[in-house]
Amino acid sequence: MLTYLARRVTQLLLILFVSSYLTYILLAWSGDPLEELRLSSDPKKEQTIIALTRQLDLNTPAPLRYFKWMAGMLGIFWGKFTMGDSRQGQDVAELIATAIPTTIRLVLAATILAILVGITIGVVTALRQYSRFDYAITFVSFLFFSLPIFWVAVLLKQYMSISFNDWLTEPIIDPLWLVGAGIVAGIFWSGVIGGTIQRVLIVFGAAFASTFGILFWLSSTNWFNTLSLGIGFVVVVGLGLAFLIVTASTGLSNRPALFSSLTMVAVGAAIYFPIQSVLIKDFSGWTLIGLALATIAVGMLAGFLFAKEDRAAVMRTSVITAVVVALLIVIDRVAQEWVPYVTSDFVSGRPIPTVGQVNDQIAMELLENPNFWAGSLDGILHIILPTVALTIGSFAGYVRYTRGNLLEVLNMDYVRTARAKGLTERTVVMRHSFRNALIPLTTLMAWDFAGLIGGAIITESVFGWIGMGTLVRQALFTFDLNLMMGVFVITSTLAVSANLVSDLLYSALDPRIRVGTGE
Amino acid sequence: MFGKKKAEVVSEAQVSESNENAISNKETEGLSQGQIVRRRFVRHRGAMIGLFTLITIVLFTYSASGLHLGNEKNPITIPGWWHYSINDLPELRYGDACPDGSTGCPTLDLNPFDVTPMGTLSGLEGDGSKVIATLNGVNALKAGEQVVISGVQPEAFNGTFTITEATEYDFTFESKASGTPEDVSSATVGTMQFGLGDHPFGQDDIGRDYFSLVMRGAEQSIMVMLIIGFLGGLIGTVVGAVAGYFRGRIDGFLMRVVDLFTTIPVILIGAVIGFKVGNLGVVVLAIFLGLFGWIGLARLVRGEFLSLREREFVDAARVAGASHRRIIFKHILPNAVGIIIVAVTLSMSGAILLETGLSYLGFGVVSPDVSLGSLISQYQDSFATRPWLFWWPGLFIIAIALCINFIGDGLRDAFDPRQRRRISKKDRAQAKLAAKVSA
Fold first, then answer.
1. What is the pTM of this model?
2. Which of A11, A419, A458 has the CB atom closest to B6's CB atom?
3. DSSP bridge pairs for A85
4. I need a surface site. Which of A420, A424, B364, B434 has the fewest CB within 10 A?
5. Nearest-neighbour CA in chain A from B382: distance (Å)
6. What is the ipTM of this complex?
């Protein structure tokens, strides 16, 4: 294993070296950084040209200049690490260090959302193969696959931001929209649940009525202006999700699992008021991590105490419920900042921005009196549009992959065996098939993550985020080699390591594949 | 979602499995592999709709602006059916003809009963056979057209009339009304024009016909897509075949090259290429992009060749004395053609998005030439005031990519031997009947 790892890493380093060399030459060939200056009529242009030539070391031919750059990179081993200076004389390493978190935040949010939604929908379409729901989702995912992200972005800005903000000044849902939303929800849920005509009609009716009712109630109580959730939200939604989680994980017939999950909701409700004094404005990330660990511990403890047999499954279920309930409390806490945020002078009732990554004025204000939750809300509101745009791009891949893989696994002999020995359909699907169908997805995830960084170039440019993509554009337009290479090193290293990790993960998850025994 | 389905599933599966096998076998009896694939493809509804739509789009766009072949000295031009080219500068529609003070609005009208406003009246004179109407602004109406006039006092002057004469600012029509019209201050003129009109997709900032621009852009994008698909497919197949067939050092070398290219983000390569050769025209850009677009396919083909070369029929060919070339092209390639076609099709939908993305960023097709991506990039800020400048190029991108994706899906299903058609109730009933009859 270790030798395999060592060999792979050496190989990757070599590939990175060669590809960075090629890229360097390719980029040097792409244009002359002084061309614009030469054409200018600036009287001082001679001096500028000489200065830039010296600064960028243009007298050294590119194939040799690369090694100077490389020496700077290798300086990491003797403490003189440098990625060179950009055209404007800024330190490239510093520029990149500020850009990376932005891009990672963007890409990570989109990847996680796409994985969660995509896999869930993919599983449902596989279980409902050849149903109308399956065909509809196939069509939608092909449509998403064909959408240019910059085109979607413009639509999102118009309808999810500008129109939505307009609507927020008087947030009353039109009756026609209420009926429309109800019908869509009805069709969706009856498609998901399926079954006989009678059942489809019942599900349709229930989904229609509940969607219509909830939206009507929210609209008539002016809820969208206050976004107040409160303990009621935590309890009601928590109970609903607890039942859902238990159904998918162990089944409602497993009483210990159900009881321990319900206990988690009860604990959430009990600590709702006391915990508010912990979730103060001056809240740090460390406290959050501590609370997360505490949540998991409580979940495990409850599962351990309730379970009589099959302890792992019960504990798993109750931990998932505990985390979900904790998330609900956090969501509620963030939502409490909604009213002061929206009514503040810098937002003036238009909470969803079309461009930018933070509201600068809000950020200034937060510097003076820190408020973790208001900052989070600001960040969330700014990331919504880009995340939706990126998610639409990669959602389709996950749906199609999950569906295909799960269908393949469901046709395997061991699934037939599992059914034949009398396991419930849920155990067959969730434990025997779903987990195995997920294995090939690790490869897709690695590819997708690397590809999304490329996609981020467009997304950042559309939404005015200042990340790696912005640096790439800037570098390409000004022929800034050092800056470009800096970005390249990061993206290619990320892509290569994502690939390596996915290979290792693959072999860890699938015992049939062994690494180190030749490819 | 899970519930009590277990029992049904098992019993149904057991009962129907042999049945379904019989039905599938019956269908493929006595057919060659090619015939089976073709049959399955034709039966795939989504793929057929996609194929038909794509062919329509290609014919439509290429015939609209005509074909431009040859070089600059001896151009060979086959004229298209659309009366504007991207270099024409017709007068920009503005004023009353367009809503909300926008300019260059589209004339496309698909509702035969709706009145398209053409302007307001400043004067209405005469009666009987010669009523002269003067417009506030330029008159775009021509003799023989139908106009709808409303809002004039007395009522008798309102209605639908045929224009007998038209000048730059006024037009003449016949009316049965007598007397002098009293008040024209709130009068409007409209047409019942149904169909494309002069500028179905509107006009851009300087008045160029947007329909011809979109057609040109679609042409460019389709061309890029085909070239990238063809070149990438060719190189990818050859590299993958050679690597997979010969294995050993060649394989090691080629696969390291593949690894190398995977470390460089496609959009980065595309941007550099676009920057360098974007001004040389779209064909050169597409060729360069195609030279880098074979990586994924090479991996796929290599994998397929690695497994196919171990099969008995290859051994048989080798024993019979076939050369390497013959084995690769005559024996293995036909068996791998399925995944190649599917991968190439899907890479083509990626190619059109790549090209439009690059042009959007300003690295692809450069002005004065246009592509669908550069059109969107140019007019994205006009979305609120002139949405048609944004919708049309986008809809063409989506339509083309969507068609390609559906065709790819159909091909995948057709080539996949494990894929079985959904057995409908009708098939099942027929099979049962057939079984009864034979018994």
1. 0.82
2. A419
3. A91
4. A420
5. 10
6. 0.82
